[in-house]
Specification:
With about 180 residues, the chain is α+β, with helices and mostly antiparallel strands. Helix content is about 25%, strand content about 30%.
């Protein structure tokens, strides 16, 4: 059983080469993966697909998958968080994830429904670009990263962002959603 997703068969993941369930959501993720590799110039080795991110809220713990975590010059520079529907409702949880995936503030946060995207400044949360075409290329991301100092996120901030992520992605998820692993 695969939660509330209609399974259409299997497909080969564009990033990892693994065989995975073919769902409507996964088709959008694969479209995004192809965009990153074929149009934006990322090497597959720079992309971690379905990155398992641990979050906590008090005694509650869960692993939330981050669709794509992209690195350049040995630092995580961008995350891409997919979800169907409204982009605005996904901003806060994606920003929380951007403060948890690597110990430093990830500078570029992309929220997308597969048809549209909003690119956020990770530190301020401000929209700095709109549309799939506005997602930075590998070269652009390397330039962005080259001028940054990556400061560690404080333990208090990590705790608060983890609670926010848990609230949005775990407490706010459909009970039959099997992409989140409640521990």
């Amino acid at each position: 059983m695969n939660g509330h997703h209609l399974v259409l068969g299997e497909l080969i993941d564009i990033i990892t080469g693994e065989t995975i369930a073919d769902t409507h959501d996964e088709r959008y993720r694969q479209k995004l993966g192809r965009l990153l590799v074929e149009q934006k110039g990322y090497d597959r080795s720079q992309i971690r697909a379905r990155f398992p991110l641990m979050c906590r809220a008090g005694e509650n713990r869960a692993i939330v998958p981050i669709d794509f975590v992209l690195s350049s010059a040995q630092a995580v520079g961008m995350i891409v968080k997919y979800g169907p529907g409204s982009l605005t409702t996904r901003h806060r949880s994606a920003l929380a994830a951007s403060r948890l995936v690597s110990g430093h503030q990830v500078p570029i946060v992309v929220v997308t429904n597969g048809e549209d995207a909003e690119i956020l400044d990770g530190a301020s949360g401000e929209i700095i670009g709109s549309g799939l075409e506005a997602i930075p290329t590998g070269v652009e991301l390397a330039e962005i990263i080259s001028g940054l100092r990556f400061e560690e996120i404080s333990s208090l901030r990590v705790e608060m962002e983890s609670r926010i992520l848990y609230c949005y992605e775990v407490d706010g998820s459909c009970p039959c959603d099997d992409t989140v692993c409640r521990l």
